[in-house]
Amino acid sequence: MSIYLPIAELPVNLLLILGLGVAVGFISGMFGVGGGFLMTPLLILVGIPPAIAVASVPSHMAASSMSGAMTYWRKRLVDLGLGLVLLSGGLIGTATGVWVFSLLRYVGQLDLVVGLSYVILLGIVGGIMLMESVRAIIRARKGVPPIVRRPGTHAWFHGLPLKLRFRQSRIYVSAIPVTIIGFGIGFFGAIMGIGGGFLLIPALIYLMRVPTTVSVATSLFLTLCTMLLATVLHAMENHSVDIVLALVLMIGGVIGAQFGARAGQAIRAEQLRLLLAILVVGVAVRVAIDLVITPQELFTIVPGGRLQ
Amino acid sequence: MKRRPAIAVAFAAALAAGTPASSALAAERLVTSVSTHRVLITSNFTGTSAVLFGAIEDDGTTVPRPAGYDVVVTVRGPTETVVARRKSRVLGIWVNTESRQFIDVPSYIAVLSNRPPQELGAPEFLRRNRIGLANHTLRQRIGGDFGDVVPQDPFRVAFLRVKMDQGLFHEEPTGLTFITPRLFRATVPIPGIAPTGTYEVETLLLSGGEVIAREATAIEVVKTGFEELFARAARDHGFLYGLATAFLALGTGILANFLFRRE
After folding, report:
1. Which residues of A226-240 are buried (b: 16+ CB within 10 A; e: fewer)?
2. B157 — contact with chain A (CB < 8 Å)?
3. Hey, which residues 38-97 in chain B have their CB within 8 Å of chain A?
4. Which residues of A touch B244 (CB under 8 A)?
5. Which ipTM score applies to this complex?
6. Residue extents of the structural domains in chain B
7. How large is the average pLDDT for residues B255-260?
8. Cα separation of A101 and B45, whole Å?
9. Considering chain A, what is the average pLDDT of its residues?
10. Sign of CA dihedral A209, A212, A213, A218
């Protein structure tokens, strides 16, 4: 069963795309991340042009993070103050990212930069998560209690000015590193077509020492806002948001997320983190292989009336 | 789209039978008819084909043609300007290193003939009449220079290869069949990724290495309904289109949250 994508200008298998939405939604529901880091490469793999994939995936992530954020909002777990400070950096980061995206597309290095960003970011984050979760599992096996939050510890950035108190997160921290984190998430989100939850959640937990549930809830809030902005900006700047592709992904995604969330509750936290780490590293390795192996066709043809 | 050869044959035969007065200069005249002049792209569009029927008319003054007739149908899609890039290995990874711009080249070319185009005449004649894929001009910009290049140019060769792999360039040396000595049929494949616009259909009647008649018509490939609406909105009203997509996402998220709410 085929459906024609009006912006990508090609027919795709409806069930395949819906299936991708469900599968990625399942994973995102299970791990509490947006799943953009999986969705964008998978869409490119099934033949969607990278520019269309990167621009259309954000709306899919906006839909699933809206659904998730509402649940956390009702439980009052979203730290609005922290979210807004992150957002101030995130919005500037997203706008910069969309601009850099069209610049890279123009000079023909978009695929390379997207690929390298995936390998480096996912490789590092996935690697750290892998080590951390393996250690946590070993500790649990030995019966050692997990390391708890240490409220007294201070990192170098705690000395910075513009300190703000975020009550929900129980932290007192300068707005500067928070804004920088937000900027980075927005920037890479727009370039890589990812929400950045898998980057932001560890940053909040390990760097800012925000409680896990508040981190997840606030990350969803931030993802929602930056992905909505990314959708509008990509539509304005690159005209490459495919609304039909986005809708199919959204529907699949929100359905998959429900089942994923249930599956996630049946697995222990450190095992869940290990699985996520393996997934993240796996994607990084897959993208790295694509960059290194000799492509079947060395030439690509893309629309380009403006090249000088 | 369903092909109805029987009806079309009857129609073409009718065309051939009702012989109108032809010009005194040309002894033969071509009459062609395309099964559809408008290809509509709808939500389930995966490509289609148009059937061209043609008849070689004779006004009675035709000189004998010992070489027989050859017919070439060439369909050329709307022109576009594209960038071709070549990857090469830099520090172990594949990077786009070289690029060329192809200016105002047809986005689609189909060449359908009753025998291989290169057999139909002298190379210079074929080039002048753009008979066969290889004889189409593909204007490139190389630095500050414009112009077509030698046929063996790697970018030109790659351009043809990639477009053929995509199904957008198509050459079929037996894609045109004679039903009777004066009645022929050709099937023009229109792939799912065909760009929208006007497709010029040119039919050449050849004999003994020269063109003795030509006929031109056109096929429009257009998006309809929602496809047209979305494509136009995305192109002309980026902000509103983006906003609409954003609200769609919000709506889907809210709906899902209420539908699957468990507490």
Report:
1. bbbbbbbbbbbbbbb
2. no
3. 41-47, 80-89, 92-96
4. 243
5. 0.83
6. 5-223, 224-263
7. 87
8. 30
9. 85
10. positive
